[in-house]
Amino acid sequence: MSTKKTKKTKRPKFTVGPVKVRAARGPSDEGAWYWRAVRYIDGAEHTLWTGWATQEVAEANISAQVAAGNIEPVDRSSAVAIPRTMGDLLECWMYAEEQRQDIKAKTKQVNKYYARKGKAYLGHVAIRQMQFHHLETFRDERLEANAAPNVVRGEISVIRRAWKWGIARQYCPNRELPRPLLKAASVRPKRTPSVEDVRRTLGALNPDSWAFTTTLLIAETGMRVGEVAALTWNNIDLEQGIAKVPYRSKTGRRDVPLSDTLTSHLTSVRGDASSKARVL
Hints:
Blueprint: E1 13-16, E2 19-25, E3 33-41, E4 44-53, H1 55-68, H2 86-99, H3 105-122, H4 132-144, H5 149-168, H6 195-204, H7 210-221, H8 225-230, E5 236-237, E6 242-246, E7 253-257, H9 260-270
Antiparallel strand pairs: 1-2, 2-3, 3-4, 5-6, 6-7
């Protein structure tokens, strides 16, 4: 039996002078849309107004503002648009975070990425109805989508921070949004390579390749991949047969003995490399 596909309602949009207005979501049961009015200044998009209204009311409101000359960008985090859903709340919180001068641009970028994931899954939930079980469902759905546990933990943290931000501005009910339990998945390898595995791997590699040197260093010294990648020839004492690995400790390093086989190999591959050059 064939089923008819539900036709999506086309979101309305209109323009009043230099202001472009489009519906971001909706309609609600009352026929209202969530509108976003923007103006482009020197190629940059600036939000002038956001809020729920019918198209007739939105057009009248924007027309009146344009006629009065009130078309300068405003702070979306202010009470101009009261957030009604978690999507609204996260959008306002993101804008407020963008204005902060005490956090790095990279932090803002990460927070924005996490907040968008929250909007995608929880944007439709009304703020007054937001409960702990919504976060649990969010966690489960993100993990089922193969998101890394640490990433999901960051996304939940951003949602809870936006919630606290909303409480301070009386956008959200004055109640805590608990953190759902989330265990990080084990990253330990299921099987440790045997000595014979290492020998076969080295036998299949070109002795002059970086892959051979990397494998031999890890197998002979037990150093971490990051430590091996960071080694410079200044860290290698071929005469003493020692690798001076930078380490966060009182001495600032730890000495790792090198076998005769490894010392001989490193001597052959160094060539004319300077002491500041990387081993790999």
